[in-house]
Automatic annotation (TrEMBL):
Organism in which the protein naturally occurs: Dokdonella ginsengisoli
The keyword ATP-binding belongs to this UniProt entry's keyword annotation: no
Catalysis performed (reactions): 2 GTP = 3',3'-c-di-GMP + 2 diphosphate
Coiled coil: none
Protein origin, superkingdom: Bacteria
Residues of the GGDEF domain: 167-300
Gene3D superfamilies: 2.60.200.20, 3.30.70.270
NCBIfam families: GGDEF
CDD domains from the UniProt entry: FHA, GGDEF
Protein name: diguanylate cyclase
Keywords: Nucleotidyltransferase, Transferase
Domain FHA: 50-99
Length: 301
């Protein structure tokens, strides 16, 4: 399953698969971050123009002080791709030369503040190579979900977005109950089957704008944009029920598993990702202590 980000970059595919030749993406060009924030990330440039800048409404947002709120725009014309500087403070450089507007060619380097992007013809072998490397760096190979490091980067960005729009955001931490005993009794491969099936069940419940990741051995986390504590808690209860109702494959050694879930909401004053993670973790601890197979949240008991 591939889900597109609201800013049309590749980062919010909750589950990642390498782009295939001939899957329709080949027609668009792409930008890869070679240096700076969001290193390795690729963004497609297709029919719709892409604005690069610090502002949350930019299609490609780079949260860095050296980048103007609306720094540069790239778009496609019948003759090829073009780039225009949007009167940025630090200028847009194309292959180290400041530009106002210019044509883009395969392999061009674009400097946006402290960030360097490489422009590539989407059909090039190099673009696919970057895609593969990026996905290896951001995904968990067992489940196909995002890995912890990438999840924390996305949480950072989503928090900035929620703060700037004063919109709610919830974080769920989901932990399998008594998972060690499954490994001990049925072996590690059986535990892996459980992890894969549970991650697929969680993924199937997610809305398009949710971000799901495996952040530890038997621990998952989900970012729910636009969710207050009540809605997030209700959603977490549905997740809990979906996992409890799951009939696992015979290779899992056991037919049933349950999860405990901690829920926390982003609040003004919670500047750091760590604050929100700690708040959700404290609720997860409560859920484990009070019997497992349940949801605990900050405001709802
Ligand atoms: N099969 C498998 N097991 C893993 C993986 N990563 C971590 N684990 C195991 O996950 C288990 C986690 O055990 P604990 O932290 O004790 O948690 P638990 O048994 O689920 O207990 P509670 O969380 O308190 O309900 C350990 O046995 C780890 O070896 C993995 O990728 N595959």
């Amino acid at each position: 399953m591939i889900r597109r980000d609201r800013d049309s970059t590749t980062t919010q595919r909750r589950t990642l698969h390498p782009a295939k030749v001939g899957d329709g993406h080949d027609e668009s060009a792409s930008l890869v971050v070679l240096q700076g924030q969001r290193l390795g990330q690729r963004v497609d440039v297709a029919a719709a123009p892409v604005t690069i800048g610090r502002a949350p409404e930019c299609e490609f947002q780079i949260v860095d002080r050296s980048v103007s709120r609306q720094h540069a725009r790239i778009w496609r014309e019948p003759s090829g791709y073009r780039i225009k500087d949007l009167d940025s403070t630090n200028k847009t450089l194309l292959n180290d030369q400041p530009i106002i507007e210019a044509e883009l060619k395969d392999g061009d380097h674009i400097s946006i503040g402290a960030c360097v992007l490489k422009f590539m013809d989407r059909s090039s072998v190099e673009a696919r190579y970057h895609d593969e490397i990026y996905q290896l760096a951001t995904m968990d190979p067992l489940t196909g979900l995002y890995n912890r490091r990438h999840f924390l980067e996305l949480l950072d960005r989503e928090l900035a977005r929620s703060a700037s729009h004063a919109r709610p955001l919830a974080l769920l931490i989901v932990d399998l109950d008594h998972f060690k005993s499954i490994n001990d009794r049925h072996g590690h491969p059986a535990g892996d089957v459980v992890l894969r099936q549970v991650s697929a069940a969680l993924d199937a419940c997610m809305r398009d704008d949710a971000i799901l990741a495996r952040i530890g051995g038997e621990e998952f986390a989900a970012i729910l944009p636009e969710h207050g504590i009540e809605a997030a808690t209700e959603f977490a209860r549905r997740l809990c029920g979906a996992v409890a109702a799951l009939t696992l494959d015979a290779q899992a050694g056991t037919r049933r598993v349950t999860v405990s879930i901690g829920v926390a909401n982003w609040r003004a004053g919670m500047a750091l990702v760590g604050d929100l993670m700690r708040a959700a973790d404290a609720q997860l601890y409560r859920a484990k202590q009070s019997g497992r197979n349940r949801v605990c949240s900050e405001a709802v008991s």
